[in-house]
Amino acid sequence: MANGQGEAAARALGVHRHTLRARMRKAARLLGRDLDDPAVRAELWIALSVTANDEDAIGQPGDSHPGPPGIA
Questions:
Q1: What is 1-70 written as a DSSP string?
Q2: Are 44 and 52 in contact (CB under 8 A)?
Q3: What is the pLDDT of residues 44-54, one digit of tens each?
Q4: pTM of the model as a whole
Q5: How far apart are CA 7 and CA 55, in angstroms?
């Protein structure tokens, strides 16, 4: 969220920036991954996208096409 900008992300989530930092540290510890690594963040985003249902979609409307990919 907010392209890695912690203060903007905290504001968008309605939490203090220190709260967001603490939660991010906890998530990194629980996952055993370095969330400062862009590749790790991409993997996490993909994993969350794959497991999200229609009501909890990740991203913005129009980011991707619903349903399975077509065969060319």
A1: -GGG-HHHHHHHHTS-HHHHHHHHHHHHHHHTS-TTSHHHHHHHHHHHHHH--GGG--S-TTSS-SSSPP
A2: no
A3: 988 888 887 66
A4: 0.61
A5: 27
State how far the Cα of 33 lies from the Cα of 30, in Å rounded to an integer: 8
| Token couple for 48 | 């969350």
Inter-axis angle of helices 17-31 and 6-13, nearest 10 = 100
- CA 23 to CA 25: how far, in whole Å? 5
Token duo for residue 35: 């969330």
